[in-house]
């Protein structure tokens, strides 16, 4: 009896809290790939899209909060499928920085740039699961977290030699070690499993292919999908053949071919571009124009920009003897992403933002620009970062497109992104679960 009174009271309380927001008179780009719709309206109830269509037909309950967006454009929130959370302060990476405060500061930066969901790819601390659970229990007002928890590499493998990365991933050499680590990881229910498969141009130790195969197989037994940091064509092919869920970077050592395309299509292996990452490894070696762009400065801050915009910083980057090779790897990454997409391989949106000098939020807009350079249309880019990327996450019922029943995760722009994808910089407002976060 007391329980039923309690639940009745709770129902009344939640009805009293029900909140309806009506956005109206905007041009809708819903992420499905359908043409834009002028004169649209959207009714958002408790954070979800209750109705969307022509403004003249909108029915909103009395007392709704109505926002007139005349002359503006609404597109889905950006989903980034490859980022890294919480380990960086200024330009220094250290897992001890992984605190609630630092994670939330980074999520807030993503949100300001219209990135409403991010997948942190294998460099997290256990705190990530608490933060994720709190978000999923309600209506977040920061960028949504997906996580690969603690990733895998070989003993002393890349990236454990990168400053601040020792101890971050599991280091495994045998199938038994893989199994033991998976017994620890899987009960935490990471959204994905991550493997780093790279020797950094022969400078580092790469995990054995056999061990990577064991990771993919063990993960699959636990119902988990594995994403791999790859660089070489040969690794992409071997792991796609072994049932890899996603290549978390483009192949960069050579052009992809029909054999890889066939393998990825057969196995349903996704490709993530991370072109912004490939660009960032040489972009700062000469002073880039975007240092003067307020849109870049918004997320970078004066202090970090002051550290990077110096001759000493540029001189240090120019000491890397492999620097002259990076633009070529970047161009190969661009061409391969387009070639795979045109061939019908599933492509999701990803940047690898979060590590030092790979700026959360700005990277995602840079990624779009770098995709457009090789012929992706604005509509394709928007569909990739919304519909496709939600499908990648297995979240198509809740996220991605701006359709009835989905969370209202969206970006309001003052310029039309279909005219020029860099119009995504013209951000007027950002909503996550119907909460206005910018
Ligand atoms: Zn990464």
TL;DR of this structure?
The protein is an alpha/beta fold and 438 residues long. It has helices at 2-17, 100-112, 127-136, 175-185, 209-221, 233-241, 258-267, 275-283, 294-300, 302-308, 311-318, 326-342, 362-373, 378-393, and strands at 20-28, 37-45, 48-54, 65-68, 73-76, 78-83, 88-89, 92-93, 115-120, 144-147, 152-153, 170-171, 193-197, 226-230, 246-247, 270-272, 347-348, 410-413, 427-432, 435-436.
What does this structure look like?
With about 450 residues, the protein is α/β, with parallel strands linked by helices. The chain has two domains: about 90 residues, Urease, subunit C, domain 1; about 325 residues, Alpha-Beta Barrel (TIM Barrel), CATH 3.20.20. Strands 1, 2, 3, 4, 5, 18, 19 and 20 form an eight-stranded mixed sheet that branches. Helix 4 runs parallel beside helix 5 and helix 8 packs antiparallel against helix 12. The N and C termini lie far apart (about 45 Å). The protein binds zinc ion. The site of zinc ion has 5 residues, from loops. Zinc ion binds next to loops.
Strand content is 15-25%
What is the fourth-level CATH superfamily of the largest domain?
Answer: Metal-dependent hydrolases
Termini separation comes to: 45 Å
Q: Ranges with pLDDT <50 over ≥5 residues?
A: 10-16
Bound molecules: zinc ion
Helix content: 25-40%
How many distinct folded domains? 2
**CATH architectural group of the largest domain:** Alpha-Beta Barrel
Tell me the CATH topology of the largest domain.
TIM Barrel
Number of strands: 20
Structural class given helices, strands, pairing?
alpha/beta
Q: Quickly name the level 1 CATH class of the largest domain.
A: Alpha Beta
Shape: globular
Q: How many strands, which pairing sense, and closed or not: the largest β-sheet? A: 8 strands, mixed
User: Helical element count?
Assistant: 14
The pLDDT mean sits at 95
Measured on Cα atoms, how large is the radius of gyration? 22 Å
